[in-house]
Amino acid sequence: MKSLWKIIVILGLVPALFAQPAAKTSADQPAKKDVAEQEAKPPDSYYRLGFVIYELEDGKRVNQREYSMIGRAGGQPTSVRVSTRVPIYAEEKKIQYIDAGLDIRCFVGSLVAGKVPLQCDVNISNFILEQQFADARNAAGPMLRTTNTSTAALLMPGKPFVISTIDDVNSKKRVQIEVTATKIE
Question: Are 152 and 163 spatial neighbours (Cβ–Cβ below 8 Å)?
Fold first, then answer.
């Protein structure tokens, strides 16, 4: 009877021995080259892009707006968009919508000689006020002004830099776009 119990216990333990995980093969382990590349690759750099868009009239600031976004060096473009959908009647009984407002799209490059390369597209659209344009009173609908700029710049981290200056064609105003790239630690 005792030997029968020993056989039952042994037969009960045999499947447990075969159920243990197999030893890792070289295919299961990451290659030493891959690990070395990951350790040698510098970590991603992130920057806070602070935009200040301001209007000047006779050399004095009369209006200022601020926007910010986070961009990763060498990553996908980043953007900020603030707009209003406006109905436009292009044909009788057909409505189309356009966006009026601000659209900023930027690509942050990897650090070059201590400077941050930046490629920015800025689109600003707004409605012309009647006093700004004499023919606006005779228009069938709202008149929209659009300003587009595409710039590339090398920025010193933490220092503001004017990337674009645009004169208003209907007034003595000037729009300036300033950006500051601050590294996020």
Answer: no
